[in-house]
Amino acid sequence: MSSTRHQDTKELPSYEEALQEHERPPPYTPPLTGSIMASITRLSRDDPDPIYEDLNNVVDSTDFADVDHYNYDVLSNAVRDVSLDTDGSSKGIVTMVNLDQYAKPGKHTYTAIGLEGSANKLGVGIIRHNLGPLSQENRAQVLSNVRDTYITPPGEGFLPRDTARHHRNWVVRLIKRSMEEAGVSREELDCICFTKGPGMGAPLQSVVIAARALSQLWDLPLIGVNHCIGHIEMGREITGADNPVVLYVSGGNTQVIAYSNQRYRIFGETLDIAIGNCLDRFARTLKIPNYPSPGYNIEQLAKKGSNYIELPYTVKGMDLSMSGILAYIDQLANDLFKGNTSNKVIFNQETKEAQITVEDLCFSLQETLFAMLVEITERAMAHVNTNQVLIVGGVGCNERLQKMMEDMVLDRKGSIYATDERFCIDNGIMIAHAGLLEFRMGKRFELKDTVCTQKFRTDEVLVSWRD
Amino acid sequence: MSIKTVLPQFPQFTVHLFKFKNVTNSKEIKQNLIKGDKRYDFSFINAQTVLSEEQLLSAVYRALLDHTQDKIRTKTIHSEVIFSLSPTQNIMDALRRFGIQDDSTDLIVIKIVDSNSQEEFDLSVVEGEEVDITDEDLKSSAILKTIKKNYKLKSEDLTVLSHQIVAAIQLRGL
Amino acid sequence: MSDHLVELAKSHLTNIPVSLISQGAESLIFTTTTHPYMETSDEGQQYIVKFRPPKKYRHPQLDAQLTKRRTLAEARLLQRLYGADGISVPSIIAVDARNGILWLEYIGQQIENGVSSLKNYLWLEDSKADYESLLRAVGDMIARLHQMGIVHGDLTTSNVMLQKHGSQWAPCLIDFGLGFTSDLVEDKAVDLYVLERAILSTHPVHSDNYNSWLMEGYKKGYGKDQGKFKQVMKRYEDVRMRGRKRSMLG
């Protein structure tokens, strides 16, 4: 075992190097299709050349920050353009994407296996698409979706090294199980999809190594998938949401996303820690079990709470910040445990008895954090003029969050889409699904390019499979 | 002459505003007020501290809003109007600055009555000469220096000044 | 949508006939011809009523607190700015913070293509003689705003209204709903960047001119304090380079 660990640490720098070598963001492809043209020409009768020049200049540079900048450029253009659409549709000119230009002759289906291990869940799933565009009539079939979660003792978080070891221990068994459940032989598979990022380095690596090994063994192409895109695409596929604002809430991510011109654009996000991280860390302070998940246990406690305690509320435009809230509520919890009766919020100053319970703290934390999430989601909806919301990511399972989102959406006469824990929580099937979409659009990875990356923004991915 | 008005949001109240000059019995009025004599249930305001009708009505609006929301800070609606003129939360200070003084000669008197009962009231408690209550009249008795000091404002433009006073009244203590 | 929110607003505004002119994520904006406490003398005089409706999804205590806090925050910014040298914002008429209602002076008038916002005015014709002076004036005003330590938070050409001063148009800044006080160079730089992006997307053809006029006005607005101006500019360049967003860990 110790030798494996040693390998881990030795491997890391080489990945960092590899990252620098190969992990430049995808080359710029002008996204200026009919719809953006139409929007610009509607604004003014003149030639919209200045924008093009601006974009091209930026993109000529290979500097990472510049490309990031470009992403945001188009983001705000897209935002304004969409919001200027008076008819409320953001589709513009519809050109159907052909998903079958690389179909093998004589084959009517595509099948992919997906491996996910960016955090403490190891998931393997097998998905099947029929020929033709996905629709309510032609849906993807989930052939199997198995998962194993690395659970740590109460009060402890999962460390990268141990999580990676967990993944290595389980990945072969899970792959075998998923193949058995699906009743699929390796000859039927078209590709192997793995999570390229974002996530924790060591766990990602352990899974990508498994994916490479499979690819060599079975002689199948590899597809690296952005974890966030996996969540979004699976959420859309399961719920049938057409063009929603996506709230992506998990242990590592908190983002409000909307699709525009072949990118999932980030409208708002956390400025410090992710929502799931905030909940997990508070669960650690409370020393409550990590099984089945810390967030779930907080949710159960919150159901029994009723006293609302005022916490900091930190929404900044469409972004939010959570570290201050965590620090504050951690302090309250510690004072409660230590019996620090000078804390006026927790203890009645006359009787010196606690007037607040752990349940109340959980309740207040959820109420505050979720209100912030719903608020920024509503802002994004107003901005892009849509009334659909899709919640994805592990925290999306939370029933209180779903209810609050529903209340907001009903006020806007819209619809909310959420999935259950099979698809909300990290899973392999979503990686298989998003990867298969890429595969059908002709994307292939060379073995040397099958590296993973801890940082991988949602808006870096060219969404070739959507109009 | 005097103003009788009903603020649209508070139809249950009718507001009367009067202005007097050459008032001779301010000391007596003030003493009776302190005693809580029912005949003196008015807002007696030192006219030197009032620049515009807007300022007065804005304070009345604030007092009625707080009254209907059960957030009144003083004992009666009439004292609340005086308190509402103030930019600060100190009630005694507000009464001293904006209320009647022993030597006041220019007075503004406000009476708020129930619109349905149309209760009678007797203004003879004020010994003085009733005058019009237009912005012009108010300006003539206003002491700008005091007003600017009360509200900590500097503007030379009286319209701007009046709007700034309104903002101060509306935002007091919130 | 959300007729019940309009009804709710009306229930807080007894006897005030209001008409909805816009609805954002956070507030509903109405106009009315009835003043809350003054006799309305001028025919056709209008007033703005901004209503922040309660959000059903929020805990009632949190909702009440946020509604009050935000209504007041906006009102306080306007109070600080109104009458300040070289700055024009609507004056406050009345505040009912507990119900999330703010009464404001109505700014602007009708022009050929709608209300006299800077956006509509710039859309009117491709090049008007006073565009340059107007945009310089806007830049100057933003500089003064920033010097007072106030950040608008949502600068767009729709949030600049134009008023006639004699025969000339003069800018007036509206909607401080996302505004806040800050003396950080970063916040001011982002404020400018947001405006630049807005101009680029709403007025793409002449955006270069418009932005450079704004910047010239902004520079001038700092008067003798060019050191401060340079600090903001330096950060502004950084903000432009990176975009507003930073890269984030998965």
Automatic annotation (TrEMBL), chain A:
GO terms for cellular component: cytoplasm; EKC/KEOPS complex; nucleus. A divalent metal cation binds at residues 227, 231, 248, 426. It comes from the Eukaryota. Keywords: Acyltransferase, Cytoplasm, Hydrolase, Metal-binding, Nucleus, Protease, Transferase, tRNA processing. Binds 1 divalent metal cation per subunit. Coiled coil: none annotated. It is an enzyme of class 2 (transferase). GO terms for biological process: proteolysis; tRNA threonylcarbamoyladenosine modification. It catalyses: L-threonylcarbamoyladenylate + adenosine(37) in tRNA = N(6)-L-threonylcarbamoyladenosine(37) in tRNA + AMP + H(+). Its cofactor is a divalent metal cation. Residues 1-25 have a biased composition (Basic and acidic residues). Substrate binds at residues 248-252, 280, 295, 299, 398. The keyword Cell wall biogenesis/degradation does not apply. CDD domains: ASKHA_NBD_OSGEP_like_euk (cd24132). The keyword Cell inner membrane does not apply. Its EC number is 2.3.1.234. Residues 1-32 are annotated as: Disordered. GO terms for molecular function: metal ion binding; peptidase activity; tRNA N(6)-L-threonylcarbamoyladenine synthase activity. Belongs to the KAE1 / TsaD family. This is N(6)-L-threonylcarbamoyladenine synthase. It comes from Cyberlindnera jadinii (strain ATCC 18201 / CBS 1600 / BCRC 20928 / JCM 3617 / NBRC 0987 / NRRL Y-1542) (Torula yeast).
UniProtKB/TrEMBL annotation, chain B:
GO terms for biological process: tRNA threonylcarbamoyladenosine modification. InterPro entries: CGI121/TPRKB, CGI121/TPRKB_sf. Keywords: Nucleus, tRNA processing. It comes from the Eukaryota. The keyword tRNA processing applies. It holds the Pfam family CGI-121. It is found in: Nucleus. The keyword Iron does not apply. One of its GO terms (cellular component) is cytosol. Component of the EKC/KEOPS complex that is required for the formation of a threonylcarbamoyl group on adenosine at position 37 (t(6)A37) in tRNAs that read codons beginning with adenine. The complex is probably involved in the transfer of the threonylcarbamoyl moiety of threonylcarbamoyl-AMP (TC-AMP) to the N6 group of A37. CGI121 acts as an allosteric effector that regulates the t(6)A activity of the complex. The EKC/KEOPS complex also promotes both telomere uncapping and telomere elongation. The complex is required for efficient recruitment of transcriptional coactivators. Belongs to the CGI121/TPRKB family. This is EKC/KEOPS complex subunit CGI121.
UniProtKB/TrEMBL annotation, chain C:
GO terms for biological process: tRNA processing; tRNA threonylcarbamoyladenosine metabolic process. Pfam families: Kdo. The keyword Cytoplasm applies. Residues 15-250 form the Protein kinase domain. It catalyses: L-seryl-[protein] + ATP = O-phospho-L-seryl-[protein] + ADP + H(+); L-threonyl-[protein] + ATP = O-phospho-L-threonyl-[protein] + ADP + H(+). One of its GO terms (molecular function) is protein serine/threonine kinase activity. Its main location: nucleus. Keywords: Activator, ATP-binding, Chromosome, Cytoplasm, Hydrolase, Kinase, Nucleotide-binding, Nucleus, Phosphoprotein, Serine/threonine-protein kinase, Telomere, Transcription, Transcription regulation, Transferase, tRNA processing. It is an enzyme of class 2 (transferase). Component of the EKC/KEOPS complex composed of at least BUD32, CGI121, GON7, KAE1 and PCC1; the whole complex dimerizes. Belongs to the protein kinase superfamily. BUD32 family. This is EKC/KEOPS complex subunit BUD32.
